[in-house]
Amino acid sequence: MLTTRYVDGAPDWIDLGTPDLDGATAFYGEVLGWGFRSAGPEAGGYGMFEVDGRTAAGGMTVTGEQGPPAWTVYFQTPDADATAKAVREAGGTVLLAPMDVFDLGRTAVLADSAGAAFGAWQPGKNKGLDVVGEPGALCWTELYTPDVPRAAAFYDKVFGWETANTPWPGGAFTSARPAGTGEEAMFGGLWPLEADPSESGRRPRWLVYFEVGDCDAVVARAGRLGGGTRTEPMSMEGVGRVATLRDPYGAEFGVVTSEPGT
What we know:
Radius of gyration: 17 Å
Helix content: 10-25%
Order of helices and strands: EHEEEEHEEEEHEEEEHEEE
Distance between the termini: 9 Å
Mean pLDDT: 95
Shape: globular
Strand content: 35-45%
Number of strands: 16
Strand order of the largest sheet: 2-3-4-1-5-8-7-6
Number of helices: 4
């Protein structure tokens, strides 16, 4: 379960790279109820998506040369430079070398040994997202990868994650949680690409999920606003109602209406 009591190895930030930040702001404002607050002219157009004045995500404009539209999940680290070194040693890639973000923290953008991109965040004044696990906020993360054991070994070397075979409706999946924590700290799952027909031939990647009050209504609203549906809403016992979407510019994300008590 995600909380704002961030520990090393846990997701503590997400941001959206999009070719049209104004358009994305309008889309997510209607779909997830977000407002947008600029971080100021010195931040190069970066800003914060907010739920009731609390930061739920970051957002920025990216060009085609910088990469495709996408959501990036960042994991907390006590030392971004050491994390970048560990990524290289584990067979991954440093896409953006560690850099200071004013006095807010230090960040790096990385890729695992299969090519899935992710970020590292070393907190300064910014300790992480203000809200998770509530409607309109991050509630889950998933890695789609061609080799789950290899991915688990990579993230263990980099962040010290603990992974486990966890029961799931219809089978099991590999869950992930920070080192030294219990099952209640589970924040995501690792899934083999070939296990999902809709993922056949697609690149390894991280996917973020947002909690919503009504999954079906959100999917319908996203469609009316120019978004696309990758997987239609479906009910999962012990989880809730789940769907995956694509915003009008191509960035993918999931939405969940959780069952009470999950």
